[in-house]
Design a protein that fits this description.
The complex is a heterodimer of chains A (383) and B (288). In chain A, a hairpin with a 6-residue loop joins strand 11 and strand 12. In chain A, the strands form three sheets. A seven-stranded mixed β-sheet of chain A has the order 7-6-8-9-10-13-14, sandwiched between helices. Chain A folds into two domains: 193 residues, Response regulator (Rossmann fold), CATH 3.40.50; 141 residues, Rossmann fold (3-Layer(aba) Sandwich). Chain A has 383 residues and is α/β, with parallel strands linked by helices. In chain A, helix 8 runs parallel beside helix 9. Chain B has one domain. The chains are: A alpha/beta (383), B mainly alpha (288).
Chain lengths: 383, 288
Amino acid sequence: MSSSGRLVLGVVIIVAVLAGVYALLQSPETANGPAAPVAQEPVTIGFIGPLTGDAAAIGQNAKAAVELAVEEVNKAGGVAGRTLNVIYEDGQCTGKVASNAANKLINADNVPVILGGLCSGETASFAGAAEQAKRVVLSYCSSAPSITQAGDYIFRDYPSDLFQGAFGAKYVYEKLGKKKVAIVYVKSDWGSGIRQVFADEFKKLGGAIVAEEGYEQVARDLRTQLTKVKAAKPDLVYFLGYTEGSIVGVKQAAELKLGVPLFGADGWDDPKIWSGAGAAGEGAMYTVVSAPLSDAFKAALKAKVGSDEVGLCSAQAYDGLKLLAQVMAKAGTDGTAIKDELYKTEYAGGVSAAKIAFDANGDPVEANYAVKAVKDGKAVEQK
Amino acid sequence: MSYLIHLSTLFSIYAILGVSLNLLIGYTGLISVMHAAFFGVGAYATALLMTKLGLNFFLAAILGAVISGVIGCAIGWLFARLGGDYYVMGSVAWNFIVVSILINWESLTNGPLGIPGIPKPSLGGFSFGSNVPFLILSLIFLVCVYAISRWVVRSSFGRVIKAVREDEEAARVFGYHTLFFKVAVSGIATAMAGIAGALFASYITFIEPTTFSVMESVLILAIVIFGGFANIRGSLLGAFALVLIPEALRFAGFSADIAANMQQLVYGLVLVLFMLYRPQGLIGEYRF
């Protein structure tokens, strides 16, 4: 080995060793779990969400909402007199990275609670580790039905897709009176999950699913799927898509003269879709988790991120932090105590729901949905 | 401490992937960018055998490795006629195909929803569920994989695959049936990747298709390049460095606003600088 090679190797090893030592020094943990808290020490909890990568826009917005909530909690005296402090870790919307982040938060930072993850894949990947270490997880955005069974310490204040799919099916069948529906869906945990529940519920009500066409998340041409759907002659198309695919899909549905109404879910709650689709989007409807969103919250968030946008889960993230602050003020900073208290807690006056309480699985008891319809390029809530 | 145990477990899994890929790339000269596909096949096979058929982890993992290895042999045979750059392209395509199958074969793989609740290994009433026993288990697997790889590269078989790398035609002239050697080494390497997949599935307890995308293959390739071609100890070092550097950066103390982006930026910078000053990897024995 040349001398320069040896030098490089040496530097790499020294850096790695130093990093390891630093990680060890950071970890005040003892064999019996969390160390006893000192009275005036700040309370530290963890946050996980996609801060880089595909879903970073939602993640960054949620992080801003959490920062806002932290400022407010600390201004109002903190958690039982102690300052609240949040460590933000990037989960990149992927299981492996989120699992690393959670392990770091649990074992190195020794946090009693993790607010996160955002994507269902993130939450599912570290639920087991958190459960084992007896730390509470409160997800503010994961909607996959499987999270319900993830464990005793796993909560969420965002409703499961089960509710949304069922709500959509009922609305289409009863309110809109459509009996023959075709489904176009994006093949992701969100799209496939809602599609299943919707189809089951719709058939149970007595309706017929005449076609089901899935497309890849990266697809930007849905003419094949839409042509097949048109041939099946539905009364309505239930269209599950994210922003980019939906703009194309909605436009192409108009080009192919589908001639039936489009109905979507919360993925469509993005103004970019309706400004992008233009006239083709007129009359489209979708279900969305209804959130009261006070004007004060909207204004404060706007001051923080500089735009009007309230991300998909920002209200839930904001409420989640406030809820945790309230619970920790009462129960202290032990994971198990927080868990027990969470099951008993009722949080009122939030911006994501009028009342947040958890059922025996840690899912929100109430899930309220609203239906929005697109008129003149803007989505308006239906009464 | 448990954080370090977690990272050590991940290190063992990625070291298995690195060492096995090095057999293909470093020793045989087949630049494969599809190792994550076999990682995924092993993970899915193990997860499905455990959750749907209720098999024990060890049986499921061995079957997973066999399935991955058999597919690896078939692909190795199919791609043996592709030389150089074409092999790279073919392997990337195969990785895409596998991920598409995992996403679209919903009745078997549960599609994009993934498979949650994969059980932890247990043997005769002893559970490897907690972190330390699991780490020991994965280290045992790593040692086995390392020992097999070492034996492979030091045997006469190893000398032939190196000859294939240097000059396939010359090896054939000497009477070696090079196709057989390429297929065999593919089978060995992909079966090892299958073992890594089994460990990963059981450790994280949740798998989904995008975990096994081409980017993951690129990461494994980076482990091999970082450690050095044709040196299996190098792949251990590569896995150690590439698993640890991004985690160490979590402690670098960037302000919260830019931390996530800075971590990736610095990680990228470290890799670029490293390749500029040390293109043969840490302790590589071969340069393309």
